[in-house]
Each structure stands twice: as structure tokens, then as C-alpha cells.
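INFO  loader      accepted 1 record
INFO  loader      residues=81
INFO  predictor   begin
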Amino acid sequence: MVLATAKLTSKYQITIPAEARQRLGVKEGDYIDLVEEGNQLVLKAAQGSWVERTKGLGKELWEAEGGAEAYIRRERESWER
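INFO  predictor   done
INFO  writer      dumping C-alpha cells
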């Protein structure tokens, strides 16, 4: 279902039509997540602050390094060589 259509400007910006903003529950200054789902780009109202939404991002990378403390310890040891 197409709710609305928006035109891309020369600066690659769009204006989200009023009905779509109301249905998303967003207002000026709010953040919107752009989520790729298959071959579609979906707009979703961002929940919480940027810090809350990115908490845990890259967790598996830190775990692969043995945790942040282990990584920092190895970095500090490398300075002494």
C-alpha cells in the first residue's frame, strides 16, 4: 500500500508528507531510521536516543577481541615495545 509519494530534490532530500509523519508519530527534530528490507527502503520512527539505539553495536567484535579491557591492555602493552 502506497501511503504517499515524495519527490527527491537536487540535494537528494525528501519531505515526508503530513499524513505519513502523523502515522509514524514523528515531529520536527525527531530521528527516522532508514531500514533496508530486501529491495525496499523502509522509514521507521527511531526509538530512544542515539546512545540507546546504538548500545551494543559491534558487541561481537569486542567479544572476538576478548572484551574491551583485554583489547585496551594489549594496546597499552604495544606502546611499551
